[in-house]
Amino acid sequence: MSDTKFDVVGIGNAIVDVLAHAEDAFLEEHGLAKGAMTIIDAETAEKIYGLMGSGVEVSGGSAANTIAGIASLGGAGAFIGKVCKDQLGDVFTHDIRAVGVSFETKADENGVPTARCLICVTPDAERTMQTFLGACVDLGPEDVDDQVVGASKVLYLEGYLWDPPRAKEAFIKAAKIAAEAGRQVALSLSDPFCVDRHREEFLDLVNNHVNILFANEDEIKSLYQVDDFDAALQYVRGHCDIAALTRSSQGSVVVAGEEVHVIDAEKIDKVVDTTGAGDSYAAGFLYGLTQGRELATCGHIGGILAAEIISHYGARAENDLKAVLAEKMK
Prior knowledge:
The protein is α/β, with parallel strands linked by helices. It contains twelve helices and 14 strands. The chain has helices spanning 24-29, 42-51, 62-72, 87-98, 146-150, 165-180, 192-208, 217-224, 229-236, 277-290, 295-310, 321-328; strands spanning 6-11, 15-21, 37-39, 56-60, 77-80, 102-103, 115-121, 127-132, 152-158, 184-188, 212-216, 242-246, 252-256, 259-263. Strand 12 and strand 13 (252-256) form a beta hairpin.
């Protein structure tokens, strides 16, 4: 195996999040599926943006959030994703490089705007996402840097990539490069509705190409079409090397063959916004894994980062994650 330059390289949608508070009545009035991520077109994006209350703009995207978290802890991260040469594209590029992530994907110049995700956060801290993929749909196999993927300990892919066809091709190309280089491939299922759209293909990926699977309780139950978490756990345990399954206030369960680790959730004063909780958990877990930590410790680090992220607004950390981790791991 050749030397590694990066701990984790992520491939995902390069998105700028627009977050605003909203009441449940707003979701019902405009037909927004609560708790889900729905793909929308440019016209709908403009309409919903105009209806939302005052918002906060922060760089996001599932895999990008994870890689940013890893870099914030001191890990070596790289990201592959497509933005446009526009204002939001500049915001995204600046933000991800500022936390120490290598981001060298060529910006799109064909005029398709940088993607944005309109996130309505209801009083129960649940987030409902309307995503205009914009320039993300132009991500293709040519954007996958063979050397970066081959020089990363782990390739991390977000399930949302399975929606745009050319991104799917990039996903498959990168997974093959990683496998040939003897690297690990990690996949986040992203969203139960995403799983519903691509179940058979996801099952094939998990069975044949993925070493590390991240999913929350709803996603893993959707994948195996069961109503019981324990039944889903039994299905997944033989299908990939490691499955890290999050259960909100019940913490997480990490399964690897005969190993099963149940990790309690971190205690926090108040859940403010669940945006990015799964992304942050994956960041902590993969940071621990690439630093040689035991699986239970990886799950614990993931839980610490998830708790930190849901205690404030937005999907990127506001506090020094190194300091937070050092304090919690005493």
